[in-house]
Amino acid sequence: MGGNIFSYINAFIVGGIICAAGQILIDKTKLTTARILVIFVTTGAILGALGVYQKLVEIGGAGATVPLTGFGYNLVKGAFKDVENTGLLGAFTGGVKAAAAGITAAIFFGYLTSVAFTPKAKR
After folding, report:
1. CA-CA distance, 25 to 29, in Å (whole number)?
2. How many CB atoms lie within 10 A of CB 56?
3. Is 36's pLDDT higher than 90?
4. What pLDDT does residue 2 have?
5. Which of 18, 7, 13 is nearest to 41 (CA)?
6. DSSP of the chain, one letter per residue?
7. pTM here?
């Protein structure tokens, strides 16, 4: 078992706060879930660009990197890293490179799930 119990508790608390914020937006506003998704990814990207989200990742670990805000943070982090290595072109390619594994995993496991289960249309 890697890490201590406090790292798991911190991940649970940070991830829970992020998810609770999303649930509050769903319950208390008329925003669609797609707009909330965009807000979360954009917020993660902005906070990542400002260096604020890195501190949250250090505290919350997976609780900060797994939610949608972590995806935005990952895109910006990859873009900054690739700009340092390859120049301006890295601003366009770095985010995609950084997020490629996560996107690939989501597609792969989504496909496996669709093969394993028979979806039914909502009524």
Report:
1. 5
2. 21
3. yes
4. 57
5. 18
6. --S-HHHHHHHHHHHHHHHHHHHHHHHHS---HHHHHHHHHHHHHHHHHHTHHHHHHHHHTHHHHSSHHHHHHHHHHHHHHHHHHH-TTHHHHHHHHHHHHHHHHHHHHHHHHHHHS------
7. 0.79
